[in-house]
Amino acid sequence: MKQLIKIILCIQFIVSIGICSTVRAMADEPVISAYAYSLYCVNTGEFLLSQNADEHLPMASTTKIMTAILGIEMLQSDKEETIVTITPDMYAEGSSMYLAAGEQILMSDLVGGMLMVSGNDAANAVAQTVGGSTEDFAKLMNKKAAEIGLNDTNFVTPSGLDAEGHYTTAHDLAKLMSYCMENSLFREIDAGLSCTVNFVSPQGKTQTYYNENRLLSEYEYCIAGKTGYTDKAGRTLVSCAEKDGIRLIAVTLNDGDDWNDHKKMYDYGFDMLSMQKLDMDFSGITLPVVGGTKDKIEVEVSSQPSVCADEKGIGDVTVVYRLPGFVYAPIAKGNMIGTIEYYKNGVYAGQSAVTAKETAAYMEQPTNFIDNVASFFKKMFKRK
User: Fold this and answer.
1) Among residues 38, 50, 64, 264, which one is catalytic?
2) What 3-state class would DSSP assign to 290?
3) Mean pLDDT of the chain
4) What is the pLDDT of residues 12-34, one digit of tens each?
5) Would you call 150 helix, strand, or coil by DSSP?
6) ω into 30 cis (within 30 of 0)
7) What is the pLDDT of residue 11?
8) Element (H, E) at 187
9) How many CB atoms within 10 Å of residue 296?
């Protein structure tokens, strides 16, 4: 019986329900000049726009999105923040934080400066500190890529300078950015218009670096992004924008008009999508009561969340009931019993509390054999 109770208590029900809603007018797809691009909706896990989005292409300094998150996750796991000492082999051609050998800098400031001005020297410094060497750091980058589900990406360098076998896709970059935006420190750093670094050594040295992502000041809904350029990759850009609870990520690879293209993609996405409140019928749900004056009680569901809907409506929403198989008396009206979770295309969209709609008092049990037998037969005849 104890084993049976344990099994019942762990019961979870999963139901997929089609939801109808007001249909919006279809928006015209924008003309994008990038060779490859994608527009990703984080709320639903769907790509709203794409072209050549699965083709393996060089990514330039958008590589530093992965370098940054690995540096951030390391400092978040350490009890004390790492102080990085700059060495001569951390120097790299191209964009730079202009770090000098012997200088010391906090890992958080190193990541901040790297994201602001795309410093290749900073990327090498992060890589050697986290991985021990740039080669071993590349292995960590690819391990993380596999964990996130980036199946068409391979990292060779931490900076994004052109290298044989260093590639990604527009689809994978969107997924990578989506993962990073779940990290509060990454969001905070990447959203900044500037970053002022107070060097540990030499003491008193400060340097302010300004974010190269123009969308932060030119597009009101932009909240993060990373630029890139090499001769082989052309101009690359990954950005994130959020409006009325809808989060979108835009990626362009080899694009001569990336700032405008991202704005057009976001305008299209936000025009096509809206947040709509669920209104699903959960009436009539009951749970058995053990040891109560009632055999069962009815439950009620609190306010339901809003989910992202496109021009066709909300679509299918999967509901997961996190409820026990039964409850023990006494139960008072309003007592929380469990939750209902909502998922759109496998993406968590919110939950509702499930509470008792009525009260079930504790029933005093018979104290002798005769009363026990009488109570048993009384219940049996009552059920019939």
Assistant:
1) 64
2) strand
3) 90
4) 445 555 554 444 456 689 999 99
5) coil
6) no
7) 41
8) helix 184-190
9) 14
302 is catalytic: no
The yes-or-no verdict on residue 383 having pLDDT over 50 is no
Furthest-apart CA pair in the chain: how many Å?
Answer: 92
Instruction: Tell me which of 61, 108, 239, 274 is the catalytic residue.
Output: 61
- Catalytic-residue membership of 178: no
Residue 150's identity, in one-letter code, is L
pLDDT at 269 over 50: yes
Residue 318 gets the label, from left (phi > 0), alpha (psi -120 to 50) or beta, of: beta
CA distances from 235 to 57, 58, 87, 317 (A): 12, 10, 30, 38
Q: Is 24 exposed, middle or buried, given 0-12, 13-18 or 19+ CB atoms closer than 10 A? A: middle
Q: Find the catalytic residue in 38, 50, 108, 118.
A: 118
The question of whether 118 is a catalytic residue gets the answer yes
Return the SS3 of 379.
Answer: helix
Which of 183, 177, 263 has the alpha carbon at shortest distance from 220? 263
Q: How many angstroms separate the CA atoms of 354 and 363, rounded?
A: 24
Other beta carbons within 10 angstroms of residue 203's beta carbon come to 8
